[in-house]
Amino acid sequence: MCRNTHSAKLTPGGLAIDCVEIGSAKIIVTARLSTKIGTCPECGAVSGRIHSRYKRRLMNLPAHGRIVEINVETRRFRCVGTACRRRIFVQRLGDAVALPSARRTARMDSIVHRLGLALGGRPGHNLASRLAIPVSKDTLLRTVRRRAARPREPLRAVGIDDWAWRKGCQYGTIICDLERRRIVALLPDRASGTSAACRLLSLHPARLGRARQVG
User: What are the domain boundaries of the chain?
Assistant: First the structure.
């Protein structure tokens, strides 16, 4: 059953709801951006000339024990800048709604990140299933690694501990910046070579991306 509604409780701000379909296990929301213009990411020109439309599917926070899926109608615009190399661009949803190419809303991604930080892979997946959050253990770990901020200043107080990729079978090394209270890197093992990489990180944080591949 499809119901027309003007309530914005099921979607982040900036989206207008056209239809809500309530099922026994899933709520499907059809929405669109309230703005009818877009800004070209290449030249910054504002355009209202629509080229085409397509559907973008986002997973949102669950409601009443049901999975919530948002189908957003997104527009492609023609750039009006005469000197711009990009002739067609996609309308951005905005960071408050979802990042470019993301499959989850920003608030859903924040919950997935916190589950991954608190519980890790498999335990986080088990709890997420009970909360009607469809996310795999690998996605939880990928989200933690993706959102781990790279430090721009030398690390002076570093915390090193074990990280369970697979409890009882495979362990890695987690490096934390104790001053800023955040994760610096997740290394693939806990061998002596990894400890040496940790010492390099404390002196040269710019080598973080390379050290993540050590192992």
Answer: 2-98, 104-147, 149-211
Asked if residue 116 lies in contact with residue 79, where contact means CB atoms within 8 angstroms, the answer is no
Rounded Cα distance between 186 and 163, Å, is: 8
Mind listing the pLDDT tens digit for each residue in 150-181? 656 777 787 888 877 777 777 888 878 888 78
Instruction: Give residues with Cβ within 8 angstroms of 64, minimum separation 6.
Output: none
Report whether 184 contacts 155 (CB < 8 A). Answer: yes
Amino acid (1-letter code) at residue 27: I
> What is the DSSP track for 30-49?
EEEES---EE-TTT--EE--
Instruction: Reduce the DSSP state of residue 115 to 3 states and report it.
Output: helix
Contact of 34 with 17, CB cutoff 8 Å: no
CB 213 within 8 A of CB 200: no
Is the whole-model pTM more than 0.85? no
